[in-house]
Design a protein that fits this description.
Elements: H1 17-28, H2 32-44, H3 48-62, H4 64-70, E1 74-75, H5 79-87, H6 89-101, H7 104-121, H8 128-144, H9 147-173, H10 178-181, H11 193-208, H12 224-253, H13 264-270, H14 273-298, H15 300-309, H16 326-340, H17 346-350, H18 354-366, H19 371-374, H20 376-381, H21 388-411, H22 417-437, E2 449-450
Antiparallel strand pairs: 1-2
Helix pairs in contact: 1-9, 1-12, 1-14, 2-11, 2-12, 3-11, 3-12, 3-21, 4-12, 5-6, 6-18, 6-22, 7-8, 7-14, 7-16, 8-14, 8-16, 9-12, 9-14, 11-21, 13-14, 18-21
């Protein structure tokens, strides 16, 4: 396998607006929606539609730092470069650990997809981890084939996914009980009051978030300063509105107590058997597959920049002939494979580093107001430029959104002491790594951004 000098400057700029849109939508629509939507319905009833719209606003607030920074420069190291630019060397080092820990999700997506596939074929429950490993292996091989292959596969998965969800909405809309939907005579509209509706919105930020991952494609985007901010906003709002329509159907077809803990009951009620299987495979299956594919493709670019700066060995970022950092990708595959067969639950994998991610998001949010000083010329040219006063308001909104999301994420750990201690351990490890490794003469940070 031929290797080239490793650098994010060697990556080819091939991703256009619709490629980035497919990546963002595929990341947002994960399997969580299959369980989170029913959970939100059970919390607030048919007013879940409004919960989704509130969640979209909260998610966009949290995305403000990404939108403004990406409108100024090409961030070749993605989120790592972003953190180094606004928060300095120490928090860039913390981001090294955050990025590596984020690969636990590879096992989570593979196992979740296996949980949907296995029952369709009547395979035993013990086979799920091996199905998950097979799925992870397939997408690992596909990503080695280069960014072009990723984009084609991702766009196909997202097209099938959206088609399946639209089918669910179209087939179900005629079965909604319109006459009583907004009537609270049965107690299931605005169930438990406005506060419960807002709490459901907090839960649903899990389902509407994810578009900011495309920041990691900045080095491979054709026009990142225009496309990435637009895609973050449009993909989030598009998916949130689509979710609201699906929630309208899900909450309006069956009585709320009969919905259960997943959309499977509703889908089984409104779809004939062949289309039901299409929904399970094309909806739940492609939601997970597109997220897994996207995670593999986006996660390598920040690591490449970390290798450039000396946090990690330079040779780790070497490229194959398709300009894929194959060693990094293989390392992530090994991590995903180990955790896939480890027997850990999906919820455990998903909650192992929640708090650390929340801390770095808040640090990023609080530094939004400093962008005009950090990038004066680029900010002056940005199509998203606002006055300093308005930027300060956006900073406050971003911080509030970040704190809200972090609290909602962390609150699930308060009753689980082992997971809470794991999160605290990761925070200590990340700060220790940044402090100790940052003193090494091998770490020479050069913020990897370009005018675009």
């Amino acid at each position: 396998m031929a290797e080239q000098i490793a650098s994010t400057k060697q990556l080819e700029q091939k991703l256009g607006f619709w490629d980035l849109q497919g990546s963002a939508i595929g990341q947002i629509i994960g399997a969580g929606i299959m369980s989170l939507m029913p959970a939100a319905i059970n919390q607030t009833g048919r007013s879940v539609v409004f919960s989704f719209l509130i969640a979209a606003v909260i998610t966009c607030a949290g995305a403000i730092p990404y939108i403004f920074l990406c409108s100024c420069v090409r961030l070749r190291g993605g989120m790592y470069t972003q953190m180094g630019l606004v928060a300095g060397k120490f928090f860039a080092g913390v981001n090294v650990v955050t990025s590596l820990l984020g690969q636990f999700g590879l096992a989570m997506y593979g196992l979740s997809l296996a949980a949907y596939i296995r029952p369709l074929f009547g395979w035993p429950e013990s086979s799920e981890k091996w199905i998950g490993l097979a799925v992870l292996t397939i997408f690992f091989i596909l990503n080695i084939m280069g960014i072009d292959a990723f984009a084609k596969i991702q766009n196909a998965l997202v097209a099938i996914l959206i088609g399946s969800l639209i089918m669910f909405g179209v087939m179900g809309i005629t079965k909604v009980n319109w006459g009583t939907y907004f009537d609270n005579s049965d107690g299931y509209f605005m169930m438990n009051g406005a506060l419960a509706m807002c709490q459901a919105a907090g839960l649903l930020t899990f389902a509407t978030g994810g578009a900011t991952i495309i920041v990691n494609f900045s080095a491979e985007a054709k026009n990142p300063v225009r496309d990435i901010p637009l895609v973050i906003v449009t993909s989030t709002l598009f998916v949130a509105c689509m979710y609201a329509i699906l929630a309208f159907v899900a909450a309006g077809v069956l009585p709320v107590p009969e919905i259960g803990n997943s959309l499977v009951n509703v889908a089984n009620h409104i779809l004939p058997t062949p289309l039901y299987y299409v929904f399970i495979i094309g909806g739940a299956g492609c939601a997970l597959a597109s997220t897994l594919n996207n995670q593999l493709a986006t996660s390598t670019k920040p690591i490449m920049a970390m290798c450039d700066d000396g946090w990690l060995p330079q040779s780790f970022a070497s490229l194959n002939k398709k300009k894929v950092p194959v060693k990094i990708l293989t390392f992530f595959y090994i991590i995903g494979a180990i955790f896939t067969v480890s027997g850990l639950s999906v919820s455990t994998l998903g909650n192992m580093s929640l708090v650390l991610g929340g801390i770095t998001s808040f640090i990023l949010a609080i530094r939004v107001a400093a962008i005009p000083k950090l990038l004066p010329e680029q900010w002056a040219r940005s199509k998203f430029k606002v006055s300093q006063g308005v930027l300060t308001i956006f900073t406050i909104i971003a911080c509030a959104g970040s704190l809200f999301s972090t609290y909602m994420n962390a609150s699930s750990l308060f009753s689980n002491m082992p997971l809470l201690m794991i999160n605290i351990g990761f925070i200590v490890a990340a700060f220790a790594f940044a402090a100790i490794r940052g003193k090494s003469p091998n770490v020479n940070m050069s913020i990897s951004y370009d005018d675009a």
